[in-house]
UniProtKB/TrEMBL annotation:
One of its GO terms (molecular function) is nucleic acid binding. Signal peptide: none annotated. It comes from Parahaliea mediterranea. This is Thermonuclease family protein. PROSITE patterns: TNASE_1 (PS01123), TNASE_3 (PS50830). Residues 89-211 form the TNase-like domain. PANTHER family: BLR1266 PROTEIN, EBNA2 BINDING PROTEIN P100. Residues 68-89 are annotated as: Disordered.
Length: 227
């Protein structure tokens, strides 16, 4: 005897059962019509939709409403990423090494060293045009100085991806504004201060933008990886 085919949950001969969302919508429509008829028969008019809408408005505008809390969290995250106003720091310490234009090592008060990749920017590789100039620019800003770091995430190389501050100066933003770095739009598309800083540096032909047709470091890495 041939074994019947396996029937998935919810399936019946000839197809699938009508989906639950359709049944739910049908039931809501039936209840709405019934409520309207009852109210019409009792008072001569239908007022319940307005009452429901007013109640929904009251719930949504409460300070403790979930969407308000979520919006507040997003605003705080935006301030944390853009550094305005300067947030509390996840790390503090002295910069003891500048590997290139966007990578440093921070030594904290306990003697632990943290490798940090600057968030939302990308500088030329050392073998690229302006690569060593970008590293020198970062060194002048932070080497052997006390800085604060706002850590955004940890990357695949276990580096902390962060925005650095020296006093109230956003180092990431300062590098882009001086023409030593690109706004890394692929990883940080919503960082508008960096976008504006890059646009201004391009317009004034500062730093790497003084050269003819500077190559983005991500394009440079892709090209050299294929060789």
């Amino acid at each position: 005897m041939t074994r019947p085919p396996y029937r998935r949950q919810g399936q019946r001969a000839g197809g699938y059962r009508r989906s639950p969302w359709w049944r739910g919508l049908r039931n809501l429509l039936v209840l709405a019509v019934a409520a309207s008829l009852l109210q019409l028969a009792g008072s001569g008019e239908v007022t319940w939709p307005g009452v429901v809408l007013e109640r929904a408005k009251e719930v949504l505008t409460r300070p403790e409403a979930g969407w308000r809390q979520a919006g507040g969290a997003l605003e705080k995250q935006g301030e944390r990423r853009e550094g305005s106003p300067p947030p509390s720091f996840d790390l503090r310490g002295r910069i003891v090494r500048v590997a290139d234009g966007d990578t440093v090592s921070l030594l904290d008060a306990t003697g632990q060293q943290h490798k940090i990749r600057l968030y939302a920017i990308d500088t030329p590789e050392l073998d690229q045009a302006h690569g060593r100039a970008a590293r020198e620019a970062l060194s002048q800003l932070v080497y052997q100085r006390q800085v604060g770091a706002v850590v955004i995430e940890v990357d695949d190389y276990q580096r902390k991806v962060a925005t650095l501050y020296s006093g109230e100066v956003d180092i990431n933003l300062a590098l882009v504004a001086a023409g030593h770095a690109w706004w890394y739009r692929y990883h940080a598309p919503h960082e508008r201060p960096l976008e504006q800083a890059e646009r201004q540096a391009r317009r004034q032909r500062l730093g790497l933008w003084a050269g003819d047709d500077p190559q983005a470091p991500w394009d440079w890495r892709r090209r050299h990886r294929r060789r």
